[in-house]
Amino acid sequence: MYYHKKLLQLSILFYSVLSYTQSYKQDFLRGEFIYQLKAKSDTRTDNRYEELFSLQIADNRAFFASSVSLKGDSVMATSGTTTHNSDGSITLGWKKDVEIPKTGLSFTIIQSNENVQYFRSAGMSLLTYKEPVINNWKLIEETKIINTINCKKAEVTLKGRNWIAWYSPEIPLPYGPYKFSGLPGLIVKITDDKGDWDFELVKSVPVSKLKGKVINIKKSRYTEAIETTQPKLKEAVRNADANAAAALASYGTTIIKGQEMLREREKQREENKKYENPLELSN
Questions:
Q1: pLDDT in tens, 65-107
Q2: Per DSSP, which regions of the chain are E strands?
Q3: How sure is the predictor about 167, in pLDDT bands with cuts at 50, 70 and 90?
């Protein structure tokens, strides 16, 4: 992990040269911050699930996604194989000894001044819904130094949880992890009041390494999506998971390891749902 005061200087530097006239088509990478999630996502245990996330900032919007899922995209792009069978079916597979990184948090979130947009695949479809930027933050006159960064406190209630955020006005970027944005500074740490979900900034990519680079999240994760609502998206994901084998078969696709594996996975998923402790407790 990299904690140093140069983070503040570098962040202020790239923020000062942002050009809001850039087109979304270009999406040059102006900053990248890595957050570590620690979450008690299962009520059966006190163990914390941990995963890294990338917050990639362009000229006038920011992209948030699991670092594991981004690595998985990269591996799949270079390791997939497709075999057209004589009966017209298609067999999908991977190159020998290739292991695809997996995450249960395969969403993509785009934050802007106008809204927060959530994207996730459900079966063969990419779905999306929009929510307003949080505008009811309660700013509190309390300060703390977190990993050498001077922070101020803010609180908000969102989707059934009470959240405590620490943001840095010295990094004047109105973004943060997940859907949390709208504060007068980058969110360095945010935790719900029960301590079940916690995001903390653990790394900043130096500006010198960003020159000429663009957002490295594939566009298929956030373009040509079908707009819906959050409840309908959740229902679509559940239905897609429950009918994965049938849906794939209808497309003439054969899964190498067999449909039995998918059915067993769905059975286990239904059992796990009884003990879920989701980040959002309500829509």
A1: 999 999 888 776 666 677 788 887 777 666 666 666 678 789 9
A2: 31-39, 49-57, 62-66, 80-84, 90-94, 108-111, 115-122, 125-132, 138-146, 149-158, 161-168, 186-192, 197-204, 226-227, 253-255
A3: very high
Closest CA to 140 of 158, 165, 173: 165
Which DSSP state fits 214? B
Tokens 């999908």 -> residue: 92
User: Which residue did the predictor score with more confidence, 212 or 167?
Assistant: 167
Radius of gyration in angstroms for the set of CA atoms belonging to the chain, rounded to a whole number: 20
Strand order, beta sheet including 161-168: 138-146, 149-158, 161-168, 186-192, 197-204, 31-39, 49-57, 62-66, 108-111, 115-122, 125-132, 226-227
**H-run or E-run covering 77:** helix 67-79
Of 64, 67, 39, give the one whose Cα is nearest residue 52: 67
Q: What is the pLDDT of residue 165?
A: 98
31 beta partners: 57
Helix (H, G, I), strand (E, B) or coil at 269: helix
